Amino acid sequence: MAQWIQGTVVDNIHRTENLFSLRIDAAVDDFTAGQFTSLAIDIDGERVARPYSYLSSPGQRPLEFFCYTATDGLLSNALVKLDSGDQLWIKQQPTGFFVLREIPVADELWMLGTGTGIAPYISILNTSEPWDRFQHIVLVQAVRTQADLLYQEMIKTFESKYPDQFSFQAYVSREPVPGTITGRVPASIENGSLEASVGRQLNTELSHIMLCGNPDMVKDTVIVLKGRGFRKHRRRTPGHITVESFW
Question: For the segment 187-223, what is each residue's pLDDT rounded down to a tens digit?
Fold first, then answer.
């Protein structure tokens, strides 16, 4: 069983009304980009925990997590109030298979995420492995409002460093924003607007798709992709789609 250890908050960056970045100092075991751990706080004598993907990459310190404050989220509403120097619990051992070693051979990697589901992608893209392995990488960040389009400075770094190897497409669902797609990810795959925007075609011979975030997005996108001949990837039956559902 994974062991709980104490971590110390280094910084708590309140980015929007509901989104914050928690930076933690803790002696966790080595992890692989794309994996997650669990954070916890003891509330009224009970340890309240939930999983969070590492946004930081292996070897980076402090550890960073991208968090959403849910209206009825007991833990998230406690985490958002933490200040530098406060302590919390973190699982020492990482877990999860949303990592590149589980992805089969492909020429293109499509990383589609909603909300804080972009965290494991940032972790992965800040390592050398995806750039050494894939000819092209497409990153999708789907949010509600323009203010929720966070970590853009990192994304711009990828665009600048890998201009011929990297494409980025933002979605904003609740307001019109130039350069973004309005609406849901599965609909844009179904009507072709995502592929038209990035200038690339999803192809069962070339593409692997990672999906992370809202379970409805993941479920509906898988349905659309299956309609085009893509299959969910499993170790025993290799395919084209790897998923990680948040909450």
Answer: 999 999 999 999 999 999 999 999 999 999 999 999 9
Half-sphere exposure of 104 (CA within 13 A, CB side): 18
Same domain (yes/no): 87, 114:
no
Domain final residue, candidates 38, 62, 91? 91
Q: 112: domain range?
A: 100-245
Q: Which of 50, 63, 56 is nearest to 24 (CA)?
A: 63
Provide the token pair at 158: 């990828």
Is the alpha carbon torsion for 29, 33, 36, 40 positive or negative?
positive
Cβ neighbour number for residue 118 with a 10 Å cutoff? 28
Residue 71 exposed, middle or buried by CB count within 10 Å (0-12, 13-18, 19+): exposed
Three-class secondary structure of residue 170 per DSSP:
strand
